[in-house]
Specification:
The protein is an alpha/beta fold and about 240 residues long. The protein folds into 2 domains: about 80 residues, 2-Layer Sandwich (60s Ribosomal Protein L30, Chain: A), CATH 3.30.1330; about 140 residues, SPOUT methyltransferase, trefoil knot domain (Alpha/beta knot), CATH 3.40.1280. Helix content is about 30%, strand content about 20%. It is built from 9 helices and 11 strands. α5 runs parallel beside α6 and α5 runs parallel beside α9. The chain is elongated. The termini are far apart.
Length: about 240
């Protein structure tokens, strides 16, 4: 059992709570039985750390409750944490979700969950909260393990991938969603920052800009709006 907070493995775990170390080592943490199970199903788990005597499996280490408290983002003294390897780049899917400056981890996690549910297997983001932020992973409910996650310059991506039809969001000048058809084999839905929307430079590159008609409110939460658009564009 690992009981020391200065153990090298534990010090490495603590470092992975910071984005710069996740990026440096291409690894991240997941916490809780459900998320560890989903990560294992996706073959992304490298090492597991647990407190329960009955949890021991191959490539795992038992740790004390005190050590778990040091690692846990939830403040739990018991449970399970896993080191996961970030996935390799996969081929672009026919349906892509593009994110321009999403800042709230809960919104990003919700969007990842909806993307996985409605067939948007590739997500491309710029100036957006880290995909592997603990709150993002938890909000995704494990869906993060089933999508292709890419950080890229959106303008450059659009210029290099003209074979996609790009649908942006514009609450003032966009075409009413009920009048939009998603009749293209390759499509990208683009969502913008919670406060400012899609940047003008990106919006100008869209083939179609969309607005969702509403009553008694001017705008929707980006997670809700994204879910509606991806649902409408899903493949039956």
């Amino acid at each position: 059992m690992i009981e020391s907070l200065t153990n090298l493995k534990i010090k490495y775990l603590v470092k992975l709570k910071q984005k710069k170390y996740r990026s440096l080592h291409n690894q991240f943490l997941v916490e809780g039985e459900h998320l560890v199970f989903e990560a294992k199903k996706s073959n992304m788990v490298e090492t597991i750390f647990y407190t329960d005597d009955n949890y021991g499996i191959e490539d795992s280490f038992q740790i004390s409750n005190q050590v778990m408290l040091k690692i846990s983002e939830l403040g739990n003294s018991k449970g399970v944490v896993a080191i996961c390897n970030k996935q390799d780049f996969k081929d672009l899917s026919n349906k892509i979700l593009m994110l321009d400056g999403i800042q709230d981890p809960g919104n990003l996690g919700t969007l990842i969950r909806s993307a996985a549910a409605f067939g948007f297997k590739t997500i491309i983001a710029e100036n957006t909260v880290d995909f592997f932020n603990e709150k993002v992973i938890r909000s995704s409910q494990g869906a993060i393990f089933y999508v292709n996650l890419i950080e890229a310059n959106l303008s450059e991506f659009i210029e290099k991938n003209k074979n996609y039809h790009y649908y942006g969001t514009d609450v003032l000048k966009g075409q009413n969603l009920k009048d939009v058809t998603f009749g293209h084999d390759k499509i990208v839905i683009v969502l913008g920052n919670e406060g400012n929307g899609v940047r003008d430079i990106i919006k100008s590159k869209m083939n179609t800009n969309i607005r969702i008609s509403m009553q008694a409110t001017e705008s929707l939460n980006v997670g809700v709006a994204g879910g509606i658009l991806m649902y409408e564009a899903r493949e039956e």
